[in-house]
């Protein structure tokens, strides 16, 4: 994939969208010094060039009754990789999962109603994988954009 050149206004639009993707194009236009139609066109171009892949929604899991989140490193037992992957996909409490290199094949983020929930959620993996779990205490770095190439 080729690197897409971004000017200062493209970057400002991206930063505004990251702060609040619901900001009106008129308000964003005032922030970045363009007209609303120009902002709309730049956003459309950034989407077409795959710089912007999606507009997302952050969910407060605590408001839904989940008091804890955990990271689970998962090492499938021999011959169980695809079974483990399907098991993870079928667990609604897994809110994010990456396939990774190294001893573990997956790193999953899960939500828990309480610490007792952990055994119930890990039980389907016991005969398929080794797991290592860490409870998340906080998030000192929230999701953010990568640095632009010339930063």
Automatic annotation (TrEMBL):
Entry's Gene Ontology molecular function annotations: sequence-specific DNA binding
Keywords: DNA-binding, Transcription, Transcription regulation
Coiled coil: none
GO biological process: response to amino acid
Presence of keyword Zinc: no
Gene Ontology CC annotations of this record: cytosol
Ribonucleoprotein as UniProt keyword: no
Origin superkingdom: Bacteria
Domain HTH asnC-type: 6-67
Classification via Pfam families: AsnC_trans_reg (PF01037), HTH_24 (PF13412)
Protein name per its UniProtKB record: Lrp/AsnC family transcriptional regulator
